[in-house]
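Holo model, erythose-4-phosphate. Inputs:
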Amino acid sequence: MQFFLDTADLDEIRALTASGLVDGVTTNPSLIAKSGRDIFETIAAICDLTDGPVSAEVTAQDAPGMIKEGHRLADIARNVCIKVPLTWEGLIATKALSDEGHQVNVTLCFSTNQALLAAKAGATFVSPFIGRLDDTGVNGMELIGEIRAVYDNYEDLDTQILAASIRGVNHVRESALLGADVATIPAKVLKALVHHPLTDKGLTAFMTDWESTGQSIL
Ligand code: E4P
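Output:
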């Protein structure tokens, strides 16, 4: 399973890519707004920090506009993945951009039929938004399972499922159990994945016992 970082914060990306555990980055217009920085500078800087796909989202609402913006974004660096919304116009743009050989992440996916359309349009990734579905009282994780089952029914559908809108460690665990190809994870959640109280307790006991030996490995 690949882990993308879901942020446009360069300090967070710098700190976490150094771990070697980050396979790419996703941004969206809200994350760019939160960063307070220029989109072109920000995406270029992120692409310098990772070789993996960096999703940069178009803002036009019509297919020709999305395609034009997609070209501008793709010109930033070779690892830009053009992010397109799951609308009819977005699907037309996805087909055109993927036919040209660009990576495309189709975002704002909330149903299995939408994911089927994204795959047929040639999306590299489809992003089902788990947390936002949970917010409405629908179990977002069920969508991941359904999309996995549908994609696995057809050999020609090779779009990767990118679990998005992840709010906590259980979303990551359940996405992995259900076979999502990628999870895009906020920095705080990624760091929280390592924690277990028994690890901390066990390490404290090992260190106390080790000190009592008076030995040193180096
Ligand atoms: C990533 O591609 C999405 O834009 C992001 O995960 C949305 O997350 P949110 O629902 O927490 O804003």
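The two ends are 36 Å apart (CA to CA). The domain at 2-213 is CATH 3.20.20.70 (TIM Barrel).
Archived with the compound record.
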